[in-house]
What does this fold into?
Amino acid sequence: MIQGAGQGPVRGANPGLTAGGQRERADRMPQRLGRIERGEGTRAPTARRGRHLAGLALALIGVVAMAGSADPASAQASDTGGPLGVFETENLVRQIHYEGLPEAEAARIGADGVARLVEMLADPAESRSHARILHALGIVGGPEAYAAIVGWAAAQPTSGEIDRDRFRAWQALPFALGRLAPRDPRALRDLAACFEAKPPGWTFRHFDAARLQALERRAAAGALAETGLPEAQRILDSVERSAADPALVGHVRAVRAEAASRAAGGAR
It folds into this structure.
């Protein structure tokens, strides 16, 4: 135990050294550590030390082996391209993906993984992962996915300042519905409703009601365009004809052109 000033001597210190000598010894410690790292001025290990290091190495090998075999079913699923289990699903949505959630991997989430995502989306302790969870549920679909997504949206506050994690999840919501739309037409209905909805009652930093409403409508337009569905195109046609905001009309046209270009490139 190291005591503070005025609390007595430091345990382990050499009583024969003055305070200045102890400080000098401490000052030389980083230099000694540097020499040790370079292998300078160190003694050859004794047999006893060698046995200790060998035992440590064996222990580490055992730990690594146990970590690798902690979830044999998940490991086998990963190796064979089978459905992702609970452990792998948790890892997928908790990781930060700088180029976006890998959709091909998210599409492999199995029934147990979907059930776990639903639990995580309802858990405030998992709020840092909620944006990725919404996206993953939209990709994998299933009867539980839609209920979980709209349930999360309905549970959001109606006033006050929200935090960054909630804001990012709110931004991901239209794109989660867009991914779900080919398997659940209710998602298209909800995206269409974004163009008539009132702005959120909450705020986030400098985003006021008008700016939040513009963000939501632009995101809904992008999500609809990405689906490529005929019904989505009819919704966007209606928005182009009736929207009073020229900036929104321009955005709708831009995202439609971009989606069409990507679809044509993928078809070649």
User: Anything to note?
Assistant: The two ends are 71 Å apart (CA to CA).
